[in-house]
Every structure is written in C-alpha cells, then in structure tokens.
Amino acid sequence: MELKKSPKADLERKKGIYLEIGLVVALIITLVAFNIKSYDIEEIEISQRTAENVVDEVFFQTAEDTPPPPEPEQPEVATELVVVENDAEIKNELGIIDASDDANKAQEEFVPVVIEEEVVVEEEEIFQVVEEDPEFPGGMEALYKYLGESIKYPTLAKENNIEGKVYVTFVVEKDGSIANPRILRDIGGGCGQEAIRVVKSMPKWKAGKQRGKNVRVQFNLPVSFKLN
Questions:
Q1: For residue 208, what are the contacts with CB-CB under 8 A and spacing of at least 6?
Q2: How far apart are alpha carbons 192 and 154 in whole angstroms?
Q3: For position 219, which CATH number holds?
Q4: How many independent structural domains does the chain possess?
Q5: What confidence tens digit (pLDDT) does each residue in 39-72 have?
Q6: Is the residue at 187 inside a domain?
Q7: What torsion do the CA atoms of 19, 24, 28, 29 make, to the nearest 10 degrees?
C-alpha cells in the first residue's frame, strides 16, 4: 500500500507561486538599484558642470594719477612808453607796409592787354565751270607754242625713252595770275617737275568770268613729252 502525502504538506503544489513572488521581489530590487545610481551620476555631472562654468575674477591695478608739473612762471615784460614830440618823425621800425601804397602802385603799373581779334579772310570760291573760260594770251595755239619752246626734255626721261602726257592743274586768279600748280598724273623721269616749272613761268592769262565778273577758275592742262 502506497504512502500519500498530505495536501498541506505538499510543497510542490505552491512552487509556482513562490517562484513568481521571488521574481517580483528581484525585479523591484533591480529597479531600486538603478534609480539610486542614476541620481548619483546626475549629481556628479551637475557638480562638474557648475565647477567648469566658474570664471576667476581678474583684478586690474591702475596707476595712480600723478598731477602735471607746474608751468614755469613767465617773467613779466615791462613796456616802456616813450614820449615823442608832435613834430618828430616816427620811423617804421617794424617794417609795416601800407597796403594803400601798393594798391596805388599796382594801378599805376597795370597796363591793360588788348587782345587783337584775328581777322578771318574768307577764301573766294574757285569755279570749275564758268560762262567764259580763262584763256592764255593768244589762245590755245599760242599756249602750245609756248610749251613747245619752253619745255626742256629731262635727261633721265631721254635716257629711259620716257614719253607721254603729264596732267597739271592750277588756278587762274581774277587778275589772270597762276596759283597752286600741282601734278594730277606723272610719267616719271622728271617730266612732272619740268611741267610744273613751265606752268609757273607762264604769263598772266585772261581771267574767267561768271555773270560778267572776274572769278577764280580751276584749269587742267595736259603737257606732252615726245622724243624726236
């Protein structure tokens, strides 16, 4: 016959309850322990921070203000009054210059500068085409005869067999004189310079006319150079 334990004496039946009670107690002890350590750490950190934020006080020592040295006493200057008679001449010992005298001298010495206006002479118009053309004395035949007799064939042109026409332009003035001769076209060999020389030495022409009055006229003249 098997022996059976009394239900009151059976400890295995209450083993689960005791285990749960033990776990709860252990958990409570653990939480309490963690709370105590965190407070200690926070207190330490706060104490460290407060210690780092403290700034040492700095004291500056200022020098005492020293009073300035007393100014040296200046000797009193005694003024001496000299009594002079009314008729005595007073010399200008201080070298004071009377401004009124300088002004009078400046007015006497000042000479106004007269600026002469430049007279601009308007150049009369030079006509290209007129009612009556200027004319060499005796006409064109006399002009060609004059050129043939006056021109000296340049040596350089002869040596190089240079022939052709040099065109010269000039102005026949109102009095018939020749002005401003220049070369329009040259053939070289000194022919242009010879043509200018001959034109400058021409006698006065018959002046050109416009509306019955003598005028300045531009004239172009061909000068021929030909070897015989």
A1: 127, 130, 132, 133, 134, 172, 214, 215, 216, 217
A2: 10
A3: 3.30.2420.10
A4: 1
A5: 444 444 444 444 344 444 434 343 444 556 667 6
A6: yes
A7: 0
